[in-house]
Specification:
By secondary structure, this protein is of the alpha/beta class. It is 37% helix and 20% strand.
């Protein structure tokens, strides 16, 4: 019989930080609502969740690094929406935000990063009120 290592889907007794970008807030607020709902459904308590709002996705890695340095949370959830436009701005912001979060994540035991990067209508549809668990998400 193989040895199986598997985590438990529970947020009970854990402390969370949610860092959310205010830019493209019409998506960010829905992502925040979904994250709060997911934590509540898995036993997380509102008093154990700290929400930090940053101006835009570019700032996510800086704030995540500081929160990680403080070691007050069991997990840091990153939420942001970078919408593709007519310029390469999307590539720079989305790429550097994800890269920066990844660098911070290398030093953490637990980390969930979910930046949303898509065109506005698709992002709005994809990130609105998804069912839980993720295995039931439409593709």
């Amino acid at each position: 019989m193989p040895r199986v290592i598997e985590g438990q889907l529970t947020a009970a007794g854990l402390k969370f930080a949610i860092v959310v970008s205010r830019f493209n807030g019409f998506i960010g607020e829905r992502l925040l609502g979904g994250a709060m709902d997911a934590l509540a459904r898995t036993g997380g308590q509102p008093d154990d969740i700290e929400v930090v709002k940053v101006p835009g996705s570019w700032k996510l890695p800086v704030v995540v690094r500081e929160l990680a340095r403080q070691k007050r949370h069991d997990a840091i959830i990153c939420l942001g929406a970078v919408i593709r436009g007519e310029t390469p701005h999307f590539d720079y912001v989305a790429g550097e935000a994800v890269k920066g979060i990844g660098h911070v994540a290398c030093g953490l035991a637990t980390h969930w990063s979910r930046p949303s990067t898509a065109r506005a209508p698709r992002a709005a549809i994809r990130d609105s009120m998804r069912p839980w668990p993720p295995s039931r998400w439409p593709t």
